[in-house]
Specification:
It contains nine helices and ten strands. The chain is of the alpha+beta class. The chain is rod-shaped and about 170 Å long.
């Protein structure tokens, strides 16, 4: 993994960590809202009905106490209902008023209404399922009725009431029932007022908790985002710095690579790059059965220029020679400085006309160089030429024979070129 890939992985990991933290905070917020809503729903679904049930149970207890008093007035020996004359009716009315009962009703075992404090329905039979299946089986039945709603007996009350049936049991035998109506309007108002206070308190508490929680979550959310921005900024700064360093390294590497393959004085290819290209060109020529031409170039009387005019003048001649070579060879060919005053040109796909034309151009440019560049002496070069495959099949042989051809050119008078020939006569060392 490269440095940039490592930094990118760190950046993705950092962003992923921040994303997870933000997602966790959102989940917590959602969970808190669900809990708050669940608490409110729980109150109205479970708590409020329980409170209402307590109100009903309180009325049931009052109804039981009233029924016990009535039982002594209207139930004689042998569990028989006594006649309800005017005197007993007045006693029942006084008990009703003393106990704060809204309405008293008395039913016999068959559900026939024997007495009603409001005088309605006496003699009628109660055929309701609640009477037959609950009260007649010995169980208390209570029901809360809001004002203007119908009771289970089909009557409409202008108040909030709790109607309670209290069975009269003699041993295991059902003897009848008392129905007691309690007016709970005032208690219902007080109950609703207290429930309202509870609701307000619970709502205020929940709103306060939600506000505190929201502020905490918001701060945590903002801190997470701020930390992520700082983390991202640091990583980006690090990435930019690494990119700058890598760019500088690439530039330095490219510069050093250039220096390793080019002549520092003239800027053309050096011996290392020339031999590498020669090797590849030779392999390509063998594969495609094409020709190569190797030109070995040596400046004439270069030592005399250095000794007479100094190395600066010699450097000018070397630079001018390199310039002439670059201006006249094709882009597919390679010109190089391979030693002090020795140059070489590698010509690929070299037919005779291409090589001859190049030699003519180089000879003419060398002759014009003194007048154009104010050189101390006329620029002259001897050129030896070796051809592949005519003069050799490997790099060492071609280099050696091009060098021999160059000395043959010097022996012929300098400033000329010669192709390699198998001349058995020894060549004198040129001056």
């Amino acid at each position: 993994m490269s440095q940039l890939e490592y930094l990118a992985a760190r950046l993705r990991a950092g962003l992923g960590g921040a994303g997870r933290r933000v997602a966790e905070l959102r989940s917590v917020v959602v969970l808190a809202l669900v809990i708050i809503l669940a608490l409110g729903a729980h109150f109205y679904i479970y708590a409020y009905p329980s409170l209402v049930r307590m109100l009903v149970e309180e009325s049931e207890l009052d109804a039981l106490r009233a029924a016990k008093v009535l039982q002594h007035l209207v139930l004689g020996e042998g569990a028989q209902w006594v006649p309800l004359d005017e005197r007993r009716s007045n006693s029942i009315e006084r008990v009703r008023q003393a106990l704060g009962v809204l309405t008293f009703k008395i039913f016999d075992r068959d559900g026939v209404l024997l007495y009603s404090s409001n005088g309605r329905g006496v003699g009628a039979k109660n055929t309701g399922e609640h009477f037959r299946d609950v009260v007649a089986q010995g169980s208390i039945f209570s029901h809360i009725v809001d004002h203007e709603e119908l009771t289970v007996d089909g009557e409409r009350e202008a108040r909030d009431v709790v109607e309670t049936y209290v069975p009269v049991m003699v041993g295991e035998r059902f003897a009848g029932a008392f129905e007691v109506y309690y007016d709970i309007t005032e208690r219902r108002i007080e109950f609703d007022r207290r429930v309202g206070k509870i609701n307000l308190g619970v709502a205020s508490l929940l709103v306060g908790l939600l506000a505190i929680f929201s502020v905490t979550v918001f701060r945590s959310y903002r801190a997470a985002l701020s930390a992520e921005r700082d983390h991202t900024r640091r990583l980006r700064e690090e990435i930019d710095q690494r990119l700058l360093i890598e760019e500088e390294l690439r530039a330095s590497h490219g510069h050093y690579r250039y220096l390793a393959h080019h002549d520092a004085l003239t800027g053309i290819a050096n011996r290392t790059l020339f031999l590498d290209r020669f090797h590849h060109a030779l392999a390509n020529a063998r594969r495609h059965r094409t020709r190569l031409a190797l030109l070995f170039i040596d400046l004439d009387r270069f030592k005399a220029v250095n000794d007479t005019y100094g190395h600066e003048a010699g450097d000018r001649m070397l630079k001018r020679t390199a310039s002439i070579l670059l201006d006249n060879v094709r882009e597919s060919d390679t010109a190089a400085r391979i030693a002090g005053d020795e140059f070489a040109v590698l010509v690929e796909h070299a037919d005779e006309r291409t090589v001859e034309a190049l030699l003519l151009r180089l000879s003419g440019e060398f002759k014009k160089a003194r007048a154009m560049d104010d050189l101390p002496l006329a620029l002259s070069a001897s050129i030896g030429v070796a051809l592949f495959p005519e003069h050799g099949d490997d790099m060492e042989t071609l280099l050696h024979r091009a060098d021999l051809a160059m000395y043959q050119a010097k022996f012929a008078g300098r400033g000329v070129w010669r192709y390699f020939s198998h001349d058995p006569d020894p060549l004198p060392e040129p001056a």
